[in-house]
Write a structure and sequence with these properties.
Blueprint: H1 9-17, H2 26-47, H3 55-70, H4 76-98, E1 103-105, E2 108-110, H5 133-141, H6 147-179, H7 187-196, E3 201-202, H8 207-239, H9 247-269
Antiparallel strand pairs: 1-2, 2-3
């Protein structure tokens, strides 16, 4: 059974910091996979996206992650930073769980009088930033990252990288989320464009209008935002002397920036 990509993140970070790195601490990789599974199940539960989502299985996987984190004899300031990240993750998920859905009847979307501010969604990385904890912890244990200044730079890299990744996921799910009455950062741009142009959205009889608003407004803007986040992630990586051909950039950042650039290139042909 193929492993989740996240399993390799601790290895990619270590090899990006030191190309000759060999001592793969698989305990961090396995715990990273556990966290990945837990976060995905929690997302399914919050979005009511999978009736088979098993809360107990998610809790068990999350507990495996916490066990490795708290039993690895890491510095207190790193543990405090990790606790803050987990608390922020809990807060943003609770807010999403409690948020109201769009009113949709017979395919007609009633656009709320007050839409969320775009800035509200600029914290998308908080939904997945716990995934940065174990790669950095593994690098610390291997003496590849030393001191709070360096691990904070590493967290900044992941903030930008995971924000770009979350935005790419939202771009893939913009229509499915919209049909279920869920506002994400991408379909928010569609709703805002429709509201500004006083266009009524009907997913049943005139879906092409919604698609056009995405193609002409939300899609290009989202691609530009992803590219901007990827560039900022690379700037943080350079502070740790991580080069553009390093595994972390090659496998985590470049696929996102490449897909976003292709989207913009296609838009320019229209």
């Amino acid at each position: 059974m193929p492993r989740e990509q996240a399993y390799y993140w601790p290895i990619w970070l270590a090899q990006s910091l030191n190309p000759n790195y060999q001592n793969r601490q698989k305990i961090f990789c396995r715990a990273q996979s556990s966290l990945w599974r837990a976060l995905n199940i929690y997302d399914d539960i919050i979005d009511n996206d999978n009736p088979q989502a098993d809360l107990m299985s998610a809790n068990n996987s999350f507990r495996n992650f916490l066990k490795v984190l708290y039993n690895s004899n890491l510095a207190g300031d790193f543990i405090n930073e990790s606790d803050n990240i987990i608390a922020a993750w809990e807060k943003v998920n609770r807010r999403e769980w409690q948020s109201s859905k769009l009113n949709i009847k017979n395919g007609i979307i009633k656009i709320p009088k007050y839409l969320p501010q775009t800035g509200t969604f600029n914290i998308g990385y908080r939904k997945s930033l716990p995934l940065a904890i174990l790669p950095i912890a593994s690098a610390i244990k291997s003496s590849l990252i030393n001191g709070s200044k360096e691990f904070k730079i590493a967290f900044n890299f992941f903030r930008y990288a995971l924000a770009a990744r979350q935005l790419a996921d939202d771009a893939s799910d913009w229509l499915a989320d919209l049909e279920r009455g869920l506002i994400n950062p991408v379909n928010l741009l569609v709703l805002r464009a429709a509201k500004n142009k006083k266009i009524k959205l009907n997913l049943k009889t005139k879906p092409e209008i919604t698609y056009l608003l995405f193609a002409n407004n939300a899609g290009p803007q989202t691609a530009k935002n992803i590219l901007n986040l990827c560039n900022k992630a690379k700037q943080e990586a350079l502070k740790l002397k991580i080069k553009d051909n390093a595994p972390l950039i090659k496998f985590l950042i470049n696929p996102l920036s490449s897909a976003a650039q292709k989207s913009l290139n296609f838009q320019n042909l229209l």
